[in-house]
Amino acid sequence: MRDQVQSADAFEQFVLLAVAELETVGETPAHSYHVTQTAKAHLADIDRQPFGGVERQKVISALGQLADKGLLRTEQTESPTGKGRPGYELAGDPDEVLEVLSATDEFTSYIETVRSS
Prior knowledge:
By secondary structure, the protein is mainly alpha-helical. The chain has helices at residues 2-7, 10-24, 32-41, 56-68, 94-101, 108-116; strands at 72-78, 84-90.
């Protein structure tokens, strides 16, 4: 898992961190909308340029890439309006994801927030 996390680009790592946060608080599988809102709420917690924003379409693309890399599992869930939508959850342990991402200083504040929740 370490290699897959390290090979993800910075935005994918940020999205992965949002999924790890949702996993930690028991809110997975999560829809792309929820992941996007979670990520947007933590833009101030990252020590880098904020990726030119966090747009839902960009998050959906990153979720797909992360699933292709084997870092996320996808399962068909139902939205509140009854539509079938993919839900995402970590394929591994959230603590392992946090550990790998803590090797870079970019996400330190966000990781501390997740660990304290």
